[in-house]
Amino acid sequence: MSTETHFQETKNIPRHVAVIMDGNGRWAQAQGEDRLFGHSNGVDSVRETLKCAREFGIKFLTLYAFSTENWARPKTEIDGLMQLLVASIHNEIDELQANGVRLKTIGDVERLPKDCIESLKEAIETTKNNQEITLVLALNYSSRDEIIRACNRLAEKVKTGLLTPGDIQQKDLENVLDTANIPDPELLIRTSGEYRVSNFLLWQLAYAEMHFTQVFWPEFRREHFIEAILDFQSRERRFGKTSDQIS
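and the corresponding structure tokens:
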């Protein structure tokens, strides 16, 4: 498949796509395997999605990889996920560098295991000058936690006299969110047939188009990504205006 033959408008491509990669565990259990089998196979979907996003000219791809709520899962699954994260970074770093992929993270990453933090910092430093596409991994992330941390940063600015409470603007909050200097997503994709945002980018998704698919994340491939882009292109994005005003 090529973008030219399948996209309605090759110029109407979202700059930033966010993905809730859901269904790894249920897919694995349907195969008679443990949940980590699903997470491991999900790495192939990450690789293909990143490849497609880069090919289509998307500049930011944010993947919800591990939420703050995920710490409640069984320890064996968490430990396996962290090992998989470290191994994936080591295995993919050369490919990221060769393809001009810049890696960033959002979330309270300092709470992750030490080896994960070290691997992430090394990969971020190695890829920091790449400009083809930015891959943002949401790790130990939840939007409510992000907003609380941002409010504390604003409070510190008020305390030191850098801000006055009555003068705080939208941009002041955006500048202290984890996503500062990252444009808001225009398209959210969620796999596995769930229809919720699960505490993901609540502020940033204010005007995002949402695409939900029944496909489990380990099965998500190029054709499913193209389907999501086509769905995005079919939407009329009004941002509070009327159809006549934007025509």
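(Above: one complete record from the training split.) Strands lie at 16-20, 60-67, 101-106, 133-141, 187-190, 209-212.
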